[in-house]
Amino acid sequence: MKVPPSKTALIQLKNELQTIKDGRDILQQKRDILLKEILGILDDVESLRKRLNEAVVKSYNLLVKAYMEAGKDSVLKESRLTNFKGELYVYQKTFMGIPVPDVKFKLKTDKFPVSSVSESLFIDVARQSFLESLQLILELSRVEIKAWKLADELRKTVIRVNALEKYYIPEYEKNIKMIRSTLEEQEREFLYILKKIS
Asked: Residue 27, Cβ neighbours under 10 Å: how many?
């Protein structure tokens, strides 16, 4: 940016530089808050993934037991009979002005047909275990979506902070230094001319 050297331009550049530095400080605070929040969410993700893996293994083990107890035909028949219905709600929440979807899922267990209670205990237990796994999958997806949204915002914030620190602030400081030295040189020349005249 080329600015003609004058005291007005110098004052304006100093004010703009201060505004840029204040903006950088705010962005650095935002970056730190986002980083702290993401690290907390990642702990939740790790915990939920562990619980989900355990729930899925348990569900499949129960399904294998149901398969062994009731037989292939009964398990297939039960899988066709059961009609799962649920409601999925997506709400927009904001975290530091960042829209983050919050997902809620409600399974309507009261809508199961009468035939969904099978003759095999393991089929019923496996069904319930898979429903619990489904709830964990939805909870994990909600938390991961939030983590990805915040991580994307963190990336943008880091880019902005770096742009301010590595380009804009040095550019302003260079122009201020150039104008200051030009004004000092003009002042020295003016004083020299005054001494010569008097």
From this structure: 20
